[in-house]
């Protein structure tokens, strides 16, 4: 799949879409699952809800024992998932089942050491074989990719690069030049799961990223409500909602989760 | 001003180990830190100001003590000396690094420092530096370590630091490091992270070992003065590796000096309950750098164990990993039991109370004594004093009067 083309086709023409756009969406929705938390069964229910909401993109996180870029909720999720005995096999089984069942593309998300332990070649081959379209490694700077760029091309995977508001212009240009699929823009400093106020600085940051890439821009870290998505219409192409949905699952269970997801999905148009 | 005997390449690697695996949000902060450190490193005035502070505030140079009684018990066929890092202000070599980074913080103009701590020595040293230099201070400490090292928590708080008990993961040093990194990812504009050991992303291994090399610089001169020659063997305990790097690195070019790193053998290397990365570890990438980690086949970190909180860590300095592969440093491990017994021996024979961390280096000398050639001179880095370990040592020894005292104290509350 050409991820960039897929994303552009899902957007209304005025929001970065193409002439033959499939939907009227002014922004797309990417959601997140920590594999094995609260359980693989619960993960499947989350994915089913995402399928029904016609979510545009889903990242599946492989849990890691040292999730240093995550906030308290995801730290707990990583830890509990490992306590539940999650290993690579469980992860790829779920990825495969999900890729066969649902229309949305899947991205692998995980910390570098788990990929390193598997070996880059196996890592890419396994993602491809099980139906993933790309990967996000939050603790891997582009200097350390080595042959991972080349291998991801060979396996037709998109390595998703992260831009942050503290990056210098020169650094942003460099990161964007390695980008593929879309660019993941981290809305603010800190870790996952805290609220982000979408102020002028976030907007300015997106505009700055835009200078260095034609790829769709995804904004993440702290988006939680439909209102956050509406505010991003015309400013970013993808809104990433992770911790907020998991928080709803914890507080309100499956029914509340579906409701939250539907309200986010509706805020795309 | 010391020139470092081993330097990383432009990407922060020592051979295969080290590097900078940092989240993008901290990139600019690291670039600024590298620039500030390099500038300080090439400024002779900076090293002089460091020496001044260490002399006037932290009792440097620390002495070398000849341990004749201890050697006598081991058969009296070789001589034992120890470098007294326990006499540093705050009681351990950790002060060297903290005061050094404190001076760097002043140069950078930041107002707040954060730190992780295992045994609590680095936390106390950072809180002390912050009090002296007028900086705000937050220390992250695993909940298990807070439990083990209450006296240090008490002092950190008295020194004005906020101590955050970290309950995530295994609630030990590695989790405290993750928590500190998370704080820094948000606070980097005003805050410097005073990393306590020669681990983590570049430039920390280089920076911490530079400040700690004051131990080896002094030792080299002192041993030459005392004996007219360099020691035959040097022993140091290895957790993250800061005291070991500090004493070893200035001797790297002295090929006749054997360097021995002593890891935490816990309940024994066969038990799986230890923290000997060079025996049970494999190469991986976590906490921002590549080194030997105590991890499973899928790269998940495993539980470590040591009686000494300061050695109970999943990773080890990339500098030491490189020197391990080069076979310049030999690594061994000492069990909890051997450490308690060597610690008691040192207390009885020399009137010196070592930290349990440092006790590992003494335990290795006791164990290897039969194989140490006659007439050798052995230098041990006594990295810290053992007052903080009173609860653990008393428990391990099973001192009933101490138990009674604790019960009475608790009842009076």
- Taking all Cα atoms into account, the compactness measure Rg of chain B is 20 Å
CATH topology of chain A: TIM Barrel
The fraction of residues in strands of chain A falls at 5-15%
Name the strands of the widest sheet of chain A in spatial order.
5-4-3-2-1-9-8-7-6
Q: What best-fitting shape of chain B do the alpha-carbon axes yield? A: globular
**H and E order of chain B:** EEHHEHEHEHEHHEHEHEHEHEEHEHHEHH
Parts with pLDDT < 50 across at least 5 consecutive residues of chain B: none
What does this structure look like?
The complex is a heterodimer of chains A (269) and B (413). Chain A has one domain: TIM Barrel, CATH 3.20.20. Helix content of chain A is 45%, strand content 15%. Chain A has helices spanning 3-10, 40-52, 72-83, 88-101, 112-118, 120-129, 148-154, 169-177, 200-210, 226-231, 243-266; strands spanning 28-34, 57-62, 106-110, 132-136, 158-159, 161-163, 183-186, 217-220, 238-241. Chain A has a nine-stranded parallel β-sheet. The longest helix of chain A has 24 residues, at 243-266. Chain A is globular. Chain B contains 16 helices and 14 strands. Chain B has helices spanning 27-41, 44-58, 68-73, 94-108, 121-133, 143-148, 150-158, 173-187, 204-227, 242-248, 277-280, 318-325, 336-350, 356-368, 390-397, 400-412; strands at 13-14, 17-18, 64-66, 79-84, 112-117, 136-142, 162-166, 191-193, 233-237, 258-266, 282-286, 289-293, 329-335, 377-382. By secondary structure, chain B is of the alpha/beta class. In chain B, the strands form four sheets. Chain B has a six-stranded mixed β-sheet with strand order 3-4-14-9-10-13, sandwiched between helices. A four-stranded parallel β-sheet of chain B has the order 7-6-5-8, sandwiched between helices. A two-stranded antiparallel ribbon of chain B has the order 1-2. Helices cover 45% and strands 17% of the residues of chain B. Chain A binds chain B through residues 64-69, 71-72, 75-76, 79, 82, 87-88, 111-118, 138-141, 143-144, 162-168, 171, 175, 186, 189-191, and chain B through 11, 19-29, 168-169, 174, 178, 181-182, 185-188, 284-288, 293, 295, 297-301.
């Amino acid at each position: 799949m050409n991820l960039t083309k897929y994303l552009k086709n899902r957007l209304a023409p005025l929001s970065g879409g193409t002439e033959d756009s499939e939907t009227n969406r002014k922004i797309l929705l990417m959601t997140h699952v920590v594999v094995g938390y609260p359980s693989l069964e619960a993960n499947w229910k989350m994915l089913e809800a995402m399928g029904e909401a016609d979510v545009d993109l889903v990242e599946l996180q492989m849990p890691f024992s040292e999730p240093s870029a995550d906030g308290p909720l995801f730290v707990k999720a990583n830890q509990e998932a490992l306590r539940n005995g999650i290993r690579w096999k469980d992860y790829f089984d779920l990825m495969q089942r999900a890729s066969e069942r649902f229309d949305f593309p899947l991205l692998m998300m995980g910390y570098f050491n788990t990929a390193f332990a598997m070996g880059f070649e196996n890592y890419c081959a396994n993602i491809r074989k099980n139906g993933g379209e790309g990967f996000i490694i939050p603790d891997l700077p582009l200097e350390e990719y080595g042959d991972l760029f080349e291998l991801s091309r060979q396996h037709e995977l998109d390595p998703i690069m992260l831009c942050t508001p503290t990056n210098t212009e020169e650094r942003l240009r460099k990161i964007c030049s390695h980008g593929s699929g879309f660019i993941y823009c981290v809305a603010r400093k800190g870790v996952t799961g805290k609220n982000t106020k979408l102020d002028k600085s976030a907007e300015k940051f997106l505009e700055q990223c835009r200078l260095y890439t034609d790829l769709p821009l995804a904004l993440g870290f702290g988006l939680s409500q439909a209102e956050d998505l509406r505010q991003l219409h015309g400013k970013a192409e993808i809104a990433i909602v992770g911790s907020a949905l998991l928080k709803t699952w914890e507080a309100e269970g499956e029914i509340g989760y579906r409701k939250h997801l539907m309200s986010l999905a509706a805020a795309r148009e | 001003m010391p020139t470092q005997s081993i330097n990383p390449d432009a990407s922060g690697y020592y051979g295969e180990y080290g590097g900078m695996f940092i989240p993008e949000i901290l990139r600019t902060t690291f670039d600024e830190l590298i620039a500030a450190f390099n500038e300080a490193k090439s400024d002779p005035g900076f090293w002089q100001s460091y020496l001044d502070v260490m002399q006037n505030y932290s009792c440097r140079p620390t002495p070398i003590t000849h341990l004749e009684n201890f050697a006598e018990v081991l058969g009296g066929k070789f001589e034992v000396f120890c470098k007294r890092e326990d006499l540093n202000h705050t009681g351990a070599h950790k002060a060297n690094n903290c005061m050094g980074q404190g001076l760097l913080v002043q140069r950078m103009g930041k107002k707040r420092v954060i730190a992780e701590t295992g045994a609590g020595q680095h936390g106390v040293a950072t809180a002390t530096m912050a009090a002296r230099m007028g900086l705000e201070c937050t220390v992250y400490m695993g909940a298990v370590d807070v439990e083990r090292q209450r006296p240090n928590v008490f002092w950190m708080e008295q020194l004005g630091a906020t101590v955050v008990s970290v309950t995530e993961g295994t609630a030990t040093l590695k989790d405290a490091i993750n928590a500190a990194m998370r704080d820094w990812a948000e606070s980097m504009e005003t805050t410097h992270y005073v990393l306590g050991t020669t681990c983590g992303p570049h430039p920390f291994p280089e920076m911490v070992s530079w400040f700690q090399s004051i131990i080896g610089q002094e030792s080299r001169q002192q041993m030459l003065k005392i004996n007219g020659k360099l020691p035959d063997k040097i022993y140091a305990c290895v957790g993250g590796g800061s005291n070991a790097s500090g004493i070893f690195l200035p001797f790297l070019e002295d090929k006749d000096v054997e360097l021995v790193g002593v890891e935490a053998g816990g309940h024994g290397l066969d038990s799986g309950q230890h923290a000997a990365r060079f025996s049970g570890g494999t190469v991986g990438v976590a906490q921002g750098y590549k080194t030997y980690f105590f991890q499973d086949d899928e790269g998940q970190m495993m539980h470590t164990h040591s009686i000494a909180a300061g050695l109970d860590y999943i990773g080890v300095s990339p500098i030491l990993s490189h020197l391990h592969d080069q076979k310049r440093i030999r690594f061994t491990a000492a069990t909890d039991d051997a450490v308690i017994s060597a610690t008691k021996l040192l207390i009885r024979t020399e009137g010196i109370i070592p930290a349990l961390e440092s006790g590992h280096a003494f335990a290795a000398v006791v164990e290897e004594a039969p194989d140490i050639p006659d007439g050798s001179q052995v230098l041990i880095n006594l990295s810290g004093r053992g007052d903080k370990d009173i609860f653990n040592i008393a428990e391990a020894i099973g001192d009933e009067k101490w138990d009674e005292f604790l019960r009475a104290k608790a009842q009076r509350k």
